[in-house]
Amino acid sequence: MIKALKTTFFYAGAVALCLPPLFVFIWMILTGMKTGIQNISYPPEFIFPPTLENFRAVFQQHNFFRYLMNSLVIATLATAISLAVGLPAAYSIAKYRQNKIGILILIARMTPFVSYLLPWYIIFRYLRLVDTFTALTLTHLIITMPMVIWLMVSFFESMPVELEDAAMIDGCSRSQSFIRIVLPLVRNGIATAAIMSFIFSWNQFLFSLILSGPRTKTVPVAVYNFISYGKIDWAGIGAAATLIVLPVSVFAFFVRKSIVQGLTMGALKD
Amino acid sequence: MKNILNSVSRFVDRNQSLVFPGPAVALLFLIVILPIAFNLYLTFTRWTIGLGQPRFIGLDNFIELIGDERVWNGVKVMVYFSGASLALELALGLAIALYFNRNFKGSELVQAIYIIPFAATPVAVALIWRIMLNPEIGVINYLLTSIGLPPSLWVSSERMVIPALVMVDVWKWTPMITLIVLAGLKSLPHDPYEAARIDGANALQIFRYITLPLIRPVLIAALMLRSLDNLKEFDMIYTITQGGPGIASETLYLYSYNVGFSFFKAGYGSALMVVVFMIVLVFNVVMNRLRRETPAL
Predict the structure, then answer these.
(1) CA–CA separation, A101 vs A89, rounded Å?
(2) Interior CA angle at A154 toward A178 and B229, to 5°?
(3) Interstrand relation of A231-232 and B51-56 (parallel, antiparallel or unpaired)
(4) Interchain proximity A224–B123, CB inside 8 Å
(5) Which residues of A203-239 are buried (b: 16+ CB within 10 A; e: fewer)?
(6) Do B121 and A220 touch (CB under 8 A)?
(7) Domains of chain B
(8) Helices of type H across B101-152
(9) Which residues contact A217 (CB under 8 A, 6 or more apart)?
(10) Which residues pair with A228 in a beta bridge?
């Protein structure tokens, strides 16, 4: 009897937890597969002949492929640079207890993004760098670099020191042992940091809203632009949102375990 | 050539603590500290972007903001939105983490689906919510009326706009709290639980006197991590309401954005941004102190 009650409780919980995310996602995809008229009809239609017309329009009329590529380029650049400078920095912070640099990271994390955006907008305008990949990648680094360092410090701290000592005795220089011994040991951490950094750059809206333009527009800004004065292209939003959200969601689905680890290692230590 | 390489390598080895963090620190100074310094300088000036030069006016911006009704509205909206969403996310996040901690059959799959919103692009899902919350033809009102509940104006009404935004924020971010708390629960020691069971404590007592005190630091850490983004929530509010109707959902942060980028008042906008930063800082300092205190059992 109690066992049956427990089972019912768990199934009810499972349904309650899965319904909200699934409903929004399915509604997003359905919106993308309805015609404009179906989207504004009431009562809303749940069953209808799906059309892929909106997806075609998003690519052909709105040049969405270009925006996807822009987002891909910027997220990849921001992630690569964050890893290149962030990994050695995180290692050094963990090894030499350089807490002052840690405070720098914390300041970067706490400051409102608008506080960066206003000065950067003024500087980039002056340098004529608005609507360039340089401007967007630099500002995305404000988010991705602290994230990579923050995550990696905790991964490096949990690594045994003896292994590195052994490498040194075997005649490795410090830089060699970092590249050949240390980095392969924390490859899970590096993968987590890279994925988190990519997702947050891909999703970033505020910096791109102000600093991008026709040439460098990223996907969050592109989908936002489907709202124009007085008119909302619901079918277009549905199709575009599906195209933007699905890649990062699939990404996150496959690496969810390491995301948990990455999130908590930063949060659980003192 | 080989000699040069050798001496470079030796230099790096001897100065690893400088060379390794060097590039990151230099880059952070360029992209983080420099704009913050510029922002601080601007708070003492009056300047409309694109018109003339910044003019030094001392503390006038800060004096002005005390008398600015939209500032006080922004603080009120911020406290309402953040207070409600953080409290709900923490409570639900803990409850759901306790649920997943039981490891029933199929919990892996449920967890995988449950955390989808966490990685989803905020602007994109916010737009979908905006469509679903439409008072006239949105699917949420349709579902409500079809089970006999009254429809709501949601984000079109001054009274319902914040609860509606809180709902979207809770939908998107509770999974993050759950993930952190769940990892905390899994790392708790077993001994106190066994002792309690031998002493005949019931489930509620075990939760109140063992789990809650033990998980407290993790809960506060999760709250701090979440507050960093929640107090500066922009994408979702901007996409769904742009601060409206009127200024009913204009947080202080959104107002500072509007002052800077709609009115192009760089000086006044910067002063508002500093105030937002101070709020985030004070909240986190207080929380950090709470986290370090040993809880009374």
Answers:
(1) 9
(2) 130
(3) unpaired
(4) yes
(5) bbbbbbbbbbeeebbbbbbbbbbbbeeeebbbbbbbb
(6) yes
(7) 62-271 (1.10.3720.10)
(8) 107-114, 116-119, 122-132, 139-146
(9) A66, A67, A70, A208, A225
(10) A231
| Chain centre to alpha carbon of residue A168 | 37
Kindly list the residues from chain B whose CB atom is less than 8 angstroms away from the CB atom of residue A192: none
Angle at A114 between CA A108 and CA A120, to 5 degrees: 85
Sole residue written with tokens 């104006």:
B153
Beta bridge partners of B168: none
ipTM of the complex: 0.90
Question: Are B253 and A91 a contacting pair at CB < 8 A?
Answer: no
Give the CB-side neighbour count of residue A197, counting CA atoms within 13 A.
Answer: 32
**Beta strands B45-48; A231-232: pairing state:** unpaired
Q: What's the pTM?
A: 0.91
Reading the block at residue A208, the tokens are: 């791109």
CB atoms within 10 A of CB B232: 25
A167 interfacial to chain B (CB closer than 8 Å): no
Residue A262, pLDDT score: 64
Q: Which two tokens stand for residue B77?
A: 């909206």
Using a CB-CB cut-off of 8 Å, the residues of chain A touching B180 are 263-264, 267-268
Q: Which residues of A135-167 are buried (b: 16+ CB within 10 A; e: fewer)?
A: bbbbbbbbbbbbbbbbbbbbbbeebeeeebeeb
pLDDT score, position A266: 57
Helix, strand, coil % over all residues of chain B, rounded to 5: 75, 5, 25
Of B25, B49, B127, the CB nearest to A101: B25
CATH architecture assignment, domain A63-268: Orthogonal Bundle (1.10)
Q: Which of B33, B112, B124 sits opposite A245 (nearest CB)?
A: B124
Tell me the nearest-neighbour CA distance from B125 into chain A, angstroms: 7
- B21: which chain A residues are within 8 Å (Cβ-Cβ)? 88-89, 92-93, 98, 101
Q: How confident is the model at residue B54 (pLDDT cuts 50, 70, 90)?
A: confident
For residues A35 and B168, give the distance between their C-alpha atoms in angstroms, rounded to a whole number: 26
What's the DSSP call for residue B210?
I
Work out the angle between the directed axes of helices A53-60 and A2-33 (0-180°, nearest 10). Answer: 50
Q: If you measure CA to CA, which chain A residue comes closest to B285?
A: A110
Whether A77 and A138 have beta carbons less than 8 Å apart is answered as no
The per-residue pLDDT for range A235-256, each reduced to its tens digit, is 899 999 999 999 898 888 877 7
Q: Give domain limits for chain A.
A: 1-51, 63-268
End-to-end CA distance of chain B: 67
What is the C-alpha separation between A157 and A150, in angstroms, rounded? 11
For chain B, the residue count is 297
Interchain pair A120, B35: CB under 8 A: yes
Q: Which residues of chain A have pLDDT under 50?
A: 270
The Cα-based distances of A37 to A30, A31, A47, B148, B218 in angstroms read 13, 11, 14, 27, 49
Residue partners of B78: CB distance under 8 A and separation at least 6: B231, B251, B252, B253, B279
